[in-house]
Amino acid sequence: MTEINSMVITHSKASIEEMERSWNGDLEEVLRSLYSNEFVQECVVMKTCNRIEIYVVSPKGSSVLFNFAKSMAFPLQVVEFLDHNESLLHLLRLACGLESMIVGEDQILGQIRDMYLLAKKTGTTGRMLDTAFSKAIQVGKRVRTETEVNRGSVSIGSAAVDLAEMVLGGLEGKMILVIGTGEMGTLVTRALAHREMDLVYIANRTFEKARDLADSMGGHAVHFENLAENVRKADVVISATSAPHYVLRISLIEEIMKGRERDLLLIDIANPRDIESSVAEIEHVKLYNIDNLRIINERNLAQRKEEAKKAEKIVDEELCLLLKQYKQQKADHIVSAIYANVYNVRKQEKERAVTKLRAYHTIGEIENKVLDDLTHSIVNKILAEPTKVLRNAAEMSDDELLDVVSRLFNIDKIPEKNNNKCK
């Protein structure tokens, strides 16, 4: 049976080190590679700082994903393989922020939308994943409208600021340096701006980007070339770049800390990491990374427990509707194919009858229309009851009846994949 299967690697099982060792390739390249598999009809790939998720529509989805995981050298002990219903439930919960490290975060909904649109643009989605991801985005919006599950720290960026506040006992009067002006750096800066901080410095390799973000958030831009000087001044450094290498190495931090007795708090929320892990061994240096944000999540989860229950109730309700929608689609595919076949026969036989009648009579537009309406009516009335039975069978999960009808009318349950969609 062709259904949705998925594989997920997330913060719930994998550490930041294991996430880094996992695949870091080009999304479009991976999409095309998966889609080129003869058994894969649709696929979507998601990659964020703390999760990798792959969804496929395939009659052999579990084996396809298992082989893919092995080929990409994923550590199998941190990989979860989900079947159709599990995949749909997980996707809906994910869109609502219930599967996030920071429960209720808003950022994940935009990431789901972006990854889905990339797959759609690449040509690797179809009816099944279109239905699933459209529903997930709609449910994510509904949960955030009808509950307060996203109250408080709702992103890794804001959680990093909360962590700094918790470790230092407050940020008043502290000099904070944010490295990076991408999505995560912007979230950090926004969280600091909401605390009315006036000692926020922002560094980026492109100074204009740092200046634009600083101007919009009320911070101060500094040149990346002066990074060491600004780290030396800072009490807190939150690093969130997309650099493929370390931005702060142990040699630099050792030099900065010479003769310094004031503690330096470093928070690394980049993936791959920005800060060399060995800097934690330097005296007066405290280093935290994404794994440490679980503390903030536990605190937030306690605050949002009742809201999370409301969100889960909505997810359960919407999952039932989604499963019903898939059942209806299965019946609709069979019904549509039957109607197409019978209408084709109707058209041929009507034309044959008209040809015979013309041998004896003049057949004008009126006569043609009468015959057309008659044959349409006969087909619709004959197929009306079977249509109801098939749709009811789908709703009752009577796959045996659907399969028998498919074989009886020689209907392919799995539409042929258009291998020319990926250019």
From TrEMBL:
<dbReference type="InterPro" id="IPR036453">
    <property type="entry name" value="GluRdtase_dimer_dom_sf"/>
</dbReference>
<comment type="pathway">
    <text>Porphyrin-containing compound metabolism; protoporphyrin-IX biosynthesis; 5-aminolevulinate from L-glutamyl-tRNA(Glu): step 1/2.</text>
</comment>
<dbReference type="Pfam" id="PF01488">
    <property type="entry name" value="Shikimate_DH"/>
</dbReference>
<feature type="binding site">
    <location>
        <begin position="48"/>
        <end position="51"/>
    </location>
    <ligand>
        <name>substrate</name>
    </ligand>
</feature>
<keyword id="KW-0521">NADP</keyword>
<keyword id="KW-0560">Oxidoreductase</keyword>
<keyword id="KW-0627">Porphyrin biosynthesis</keyword>
<feature type="domain" description="Tetrapyrrole biosynthesis glutamyl-tRNA reductase dimerisation">
    <location>
        <begin position="310"/>
        <end position="411"/>
    </location>
</feature>
<dbReference type="InterPro" id="IPR015896">
    <property type="entry name" value="4pyrrol_synth_GluRdtase_dimer"/>
</dbReference>
<feature type="binding site">
    <location>
        <position position="100"/>
    </location>
    <ligand>
        <name>substrate</name>
    </ligand>
</feature>
<feature type="binding site">
    <location>
        <position position="111"/>
    </location>
    <ligand>
        <name>substrate</name>
    </ligand>
</feature>
<comment type="subunit">
    <text>Homodimer.</text>
</comment>
<comment type="similarity">
    <text>Belongs to the glutamyl-tRNA reductase family.</text>
</comment>
<feature type="binding site">
    <location>
        <begin position="180"/>
        <end position="185"/>
    </location>
    <ligand>
        <name>NADP(+)</name>
    </ligand>
</feature>
<dbReference type="InterPro" id="IPR036291">
    <property type="entry name" value="NAD(P)-bd_dom_sf"/>
</dbReference>
<comment type="function">
    <text>Catalyzes the NADPH-dependent reduction of glutamyl-tRNA(Glu) to glutamate 1-semialdehyde (GSA).</text>
</comment>
<dbReference type="InterPro" id="IPR036343">
    <property type="entry name" value="GluRdtase_N_sf"/>
</dbReference>
<dbReference type="InterPro" id="IPR000343">
    <property type="entry name" value="4pyrrol_synth_GluRdtase"/>
</dbReference>
<feature type="binding site">
    <location>
        <begin position="105"/>
        <end position="107"/>
    </location>
    <ligand>
        <name>substrate</name>
    </ligand>
</feature>
<dbReference type="Pfam" id="PF05201">
    <property type="entry name" value="GlutR_N"/>
</dbReference>
<dbReference type="GO" id="GO:0008883">
    <property type="term" value="F:glutamyl-tRNA reductase activity"/>
</dbReference>
<dbReference type="InterPro" id="IPR015895">
    <property type="entry name" value="4pyrrol_synth_GluRdtase_N"/>
</dbReference>
<feature type="domain" description="Glutamyl-tRNA reductase N-terminal">
    <location>
        <begin position="9"/>
        <end position="147"/>
    </location>
</feature>
<dbReference type="GO" id="GO:0019353">
    <property type="term" value="P:protoporphyrinogen IX biosynthetic process from glutamate"/>
</dbReference>
<feature type="active site" description="Nucleophile">
    <location>
        <position position="49"/>
    </location>
</feature>
<protein>
    <recommendedName>
        <fullName>Glutamyl-tRNA reductase</fullName>
        <ecNumber>1.2.1.70</ecNumber>
    </recommendedName>
</protein>
<dbReference type="GO" id="GO:0050661">
    <property type="term" value="F:NADP binding"/>
</dbReference>
<dbReference type="InterPro" id="IPR006151">
    <property type="entry name" value="Shikm_DH/Glu-tRNA_Rdtase"/>
</dbReference>
<feature type="site" description="Important for activity">
    <location>
        <position position="90"/>
    </location>
</feature>
<feature type="domain" description="Quinate/shikimate 5-dehydrogenase/glutamyl-tRNA reductase">
    <location>
        <begin position="162"/>
        <end position="295"/>
    </location>
</feature>
<dbReference type="InterPro" id="IPR018214">
    <property type="entry name" value="GluRdtase_CS"/>
</dbReference>
<dbReference type="Pfam" id="PF00745">
    <property type="entry name" value="GlutR_dimer"/>
</dbReference>
